[in-house]
UniProtKB/TrEMBL annotation:
Entry EC number(s): 1.1.1.83, 1.1.1.93, 4.1.1.73
Keyword tRNA processing: no
Function noted in UniProt: Has multiple catalytic activities. Apart from catalyzing the oxidation of (+)-tartrate to oxaloglycolate, also converts meso-tartrate to D-glycerate and catalyzes the oxidative decarboxylation of D-malate to pyruvate.
Organism superkingdom: Bacteria
InterPro entries in alphabetical order: ICDH/IPMDH, IsoCit/isopropylmalate_DH_CS, IsoPropMal-DH-like_dom, TTC_DH
UniProt keyword NAD, yes or no: yes
Protein name, UniProt field: D-malate dehydrogenase [decarboxylating]
GO terms of molecular function: tartrate dehydrogenase activity
NCBIfam families: PRK08194.1, TTC
Keywords: Manganese, Metal-binding, NAD, Oxidoreductase
Gene3D superfamilies per record: Isopropylmalate Dehydrogenase
Catalytic activity: (R)-malate + NAD(+) = pyruvate + CO2 + NADH; (2R,3R)-tartrate + NAD(+) = 2-hydroxy-3-oxosuccinate + NADH + H(+); (2R,3R)-tartrate + H(+) = (R)-glycerate + CO2; tartrate + NAD(+) = 2-hydroxy-3-oxosuccinate + NADH + H(+)
């Protein structure tokens, strides 16, 4: 029997409530799918930072380097600045393990009230593929003439051929399993070096995929289309900054932040990939059993798919859709009265029917 070794990092706040529920659903999927998990728990978090001055131990990456996957909840704590959790945990893992794809599904499910009126379930179904390792989020730059009227600040963006090509190929490979339509986010009318280069690489990679539909939009109008015409898209590929914006906007237009899933993927599988919901630690509801576990569970479905357990991945996604459509056992963010465990249990109970 196949056994997957997974690092579970619940993190802070509701991460501690949704990760254990996600693990239970993964266990149930494994039993039905004929494989198993070997979990190792890590207390890496802002809470750990407050006690020890570090989010994770110095050899943290080495401790999890050989895992098959990382199942992360959320990191963040009131009073601990965001850059601590970002640079102390998320970015070292994303960059250290070459997780150069950040993947987020945008799918309107029955039973979810979208802020967009008149949209049918199933009419919005696409993925945002964000470049996750380079681009606008480089730390190269600096400040000159500090405090003087001539003060100036510069920040460099880094776009490499390798970096562009590999994330674009990932988008095309994903589209191959779907509607074969890839949309590129650009801003080559305003950004005169990096974005024309991005467009150039998109055109070059497109030629490797004959028969695919491709298009590109400037980021400003693209955000408008996400709201007005979200049914246009299949796979949207974007640089780090533009992808960051689109991958928050996408899930927002299809409903609750509590159900949005995400993955940081190393497609070559030479290092583990990391699966984490879009939401944060939600300190306002932490410890009350109110957290919606669907984002965490859906991220787990993405983990199953990455591990090669497609049937199990699909069963978990279908079980989520099933429970939402029936409108039973929903948490308060979805208009129900159930708690975190009750919603996760309902998804587990729905699983066998979808295998
Ligand atoms: P962090 O600093 O960790 O990013 P945050 O407060 O900035 O936390 P979120 O944790 O994403 O951001 O919370 C935004 C809002 O959405 C909060 O009101 C929170 O309660 C709500 N929320 C987030 N996740 C969930 C969830 N899984 N279930 C229900 N409500 C949620
Ligand atoms: Mg936040």
């Amino acid at each position: 029997m196949k056994k997957y070794s997974v690092a579970a990092i619940p993190g802070d706040g509701i991460g501690n409530e949704v990760v254990p529920e996600g693990q239970k659903v993964m266990e149930a999927a494994a039993r039905l799918g004929g494989f198993s998990f070997d979990w190792t728990h890590y207390d890496w978090s802002c809470e750990r930072f407050a006690k020890t001055g570090a989010m994770m131990p110095e050899d943290g990456l080495d401790q999890i380097r050989n895992k098959d996957a990382i199942y992360l909840g959320a990191v963040g704590f009131p009073g601990v600045p965001d850059h601590v959790s970002l640079w102390g945990l998320l970015i070292p893992i994303r960059r250290g393990f070459h997780q150069y794809v950040n993947l987020r599904p945008v799918k309107l499910l029955k039973g979810i009230e979208s802020p967009l009126k008149g949209r049918e379930a199933g009419s919005i179904d696409f993925y945002v593929v964000r470049e996750n390792n380079e681009g606008e989020y480089s730390s190269i730059g600096g400040r000159l003439y500090d405090g003087s009227p001539d003060e100036l600040v510069m920040q460099q963006s880094i776009f490499t051929r390798r970096g562009c090509d590999r994330v674009m190929r990932y988008a095309f490979e994903l589209a191959k399993t779907r509607k074969k339509h890839v949309t590129s986010a650009t801003k080559s009318n305003g950004i005169s070096h990096t974005m024309p280069y991005w467009d150039e690489r998109f055109a070059a990679i497109s030629t490797e995929y004959p028969g695919f539909k491709t298009d590109q939009f400037h980021i400003d109008i693209l955000t408008a289309h996400f709201v007005r015409n979200p049914d246009w898209f299949d796979v949207v590929v974007a640089s780090n900054l533009f992808g960051d914006i689109l991958s928050d906007l996408g899930p927002a237009v299809v409903g609750s932040i509590g159900i949005a899933a995400g993955a940081n993927i190393n497609p070559e599988k030479d290092y583990p990939s990391m699966f984490e919901p879009v939401h944060g630690s939600a300190p306002d509801i932490a410890g009350k059993g109110l957290a919606d576990p669907i984002g965490q569970i859906w991220s787990g479905a993405m983990m199953l798919r990455h591990l090669g357990e497609e049937a199990a991945a699909r069963a978990v996604e279908d079980a989520i859709a099933d429970v939402l459509a029936r409108g039973e056992a929903l948490t308060p963010d979805l208009g129900g009265k159930a708690n975190t465990r009750e919603l996760a249990d309902a998804i587990t109970a729905a699983l066998p029917a979808h295998f």
